[in-house]
Amino acid sequence: MKKTFLLLILLLAIPAFSQSINDYQYVIVPIKFDFLKYNDRYRLNTTTKLLLQKYGFKAFLSTDDIPEEVTSKRCAILYASLVEDNSFFATKIKVVLKDCKEKVVYETDFGTSREKDFAVAYNEAIRNASKSFEKLNYTYNGKNDATNANGIPVVPETPVTPIPVKKDLSETLAAKTQSTETTEAISPEMFFFAQPITNGFQIVNSEPRVIMRLLNTSQKNVFIGVKGNTNGVVILKNDQWFFEYYESGKLVSEPLKLKF
């Protein structure tokens, strides 16, 4: 009788673990989280999307132009949310991924920040929470590629090879960032947050406002730095970040307090 009871418990437990995070490749992030009043407050929604992309998911904001081939497979999509557990002394956040039936497929550990500024605290906490994805070793297994929600075979898209544009790199980078970034001076006393983007990071202040971009290079802790019309390198030396560039033929080295 005891063995039968244990076997019954085991059989009931199996469905709870039958779903794997590797069965999913798409994640939709809402434009507003329940515990905040405004859309993309503190850029948390955008940051969540970018962090999920960093760890291999194909993530979209709910307001993005999402391809029909994705929306047609509702139960092949995960839906992201943030859960907060704040105290007087700390901000705590975790990322929760649920399926179309509201079942939790994966959730991170809580990330914590003791910063007083909400914009800084929330961004630091979600970055700390996202470190759980590093242990996850996520790899999509292709389970939901065969058919859509109606059982119709899905024809994979043909990759499009981008046509290279013959343009000076510095001109391209400057033009791309000039319209969105402020040209305010970088204060060495102020902390800035690095938010992941394609091929690097964008650096934001506490407003939050993008003040510059860092583009990856082949060297660890060395980035191409783009601030307005100024291009240079951002490099880590003796545990201190510096933005180095030439101005009127002279090398300028500005210290930066960055939090990744």
The amount of helix comes to 10-25%
Give the SSE order as H and E letters. Answer: HEHEHEEEEHHHEEEEEEE
CATH architectural grouping of the largest domain? 3-Layer(aba) Sandwich
Strand element count: 13
| CATH fold name of the largest domain | Rossmann fold
- How are the strands ordered across the major sheet? 7-8-9-10-11-12-13
Number of domains: 2
For the record, the CATH class of the largest domain is: Alpha Beta
Relative strand content: 25-35%
From the helix content, strand content and strand pairing, which structural class follows?
alpha+beta
Any overview of this molecule?
The chain is an alpha+beta fold and 260 residues long. The chain has 2 domains: 20-136, Rossmann fold, CATH 3.40.50; 169-259, no CATH class. The chain has helices spanning 2-13, 44-54, 68-71, 118-130, 132-136, 169-178; strands at 26-29, 58-61, 77-84, 91-98, 104-107, 111-113, 191-197, 200-204, 210-216, 222-227, 230-237, 240-247, 250-259. Strands 7-8-9-10-11-12-13 form a 7-stranded mixed β-barrel. Strand 11 (230-237) and strand 12 form a beta hairpin. Helix 2 runs parallel beside helix 4 (118-130). The longest helix is centred in the middle third of the chain and has 13 residues, at 118-130.
